[in-house]
Amino acid sequence: MEQQSPGKISKSGTVPSPQPQAEGLRFSPSLQEDLDALPKSYGRTTIVLMAVDPYRVHAYWEVVPKDLADARRLRGPQARPALRFHEVTGISVDGANAHCCFDVDVQFAAENWYVHLWSPAKSYVVDLGLRTADGSFFALVRSNIAHTPPAGPEPAAESSGARPYARPYEHTPQRGEYSASGTSASSQTTGARFVDLTQMNENSFIPGMSSR
Predict the structure, then answer these.
(1) In DSSP terms, which residues pair with 47 in a beta bridge?
(2) H or E stretch including 124?
(3) Which of 139, 141, 166, 171 would disulfide-bridge 129, Cβ 3.0–4.6 Å?
(4) Where are the alpha helices (DSSP H) in the chain?
(5) If one looks up domain 46-204 in CATH, what number appears?
(6) How do residues 188-200 score in pLDDT, each as one tens digit?
């Protein structure tokens, strides 16, 4: 078989595929030192929510053992860890006025989770906590608000002559579908916008508030 260099056309008219050059990800020594210097834990119960694409968000968190132990004493050992999502599109969040909510079972030890959604262009805030058998929810901490982008060009973009997306996003997950941490190939944010809710967290969120 005739050997061809990558990018050249062979006698058969086919273009040989470039030879893979798989190498491990390497950082410069100075960058690696900076990465190694990052703390494994910040000692504070917190959660951050990020939009990945129109139909997917990513949450990552840290739970201080004392906070978790206190919550389990109040709710019992059978309470299950969960994320409670609140859909807050187009409203001023006061902590209890979401359009709707839904729960996703997680594991605290995972420390992050990808969640598939069923509608684009929505705003969400999520509580991390414990859900009991009767459906009551004990929140440990609340996230920022994350806004998922639209699945295609908005009418204003088309009328103004702005270049639309080359291809609309495709979506197949059904209502309530979610995937565990690590199943996503990428956590690249596309067109997402974020709002810092530090003030809202301080003024509106009370750890341990329950809902049904």
Answers:
(1) 61
(2) strand 123-131
(3) 139
(4) 29-37, 65-75, 155-159, 198-204
(5) 2.60.40.10
(6) 333 333 333 333 3
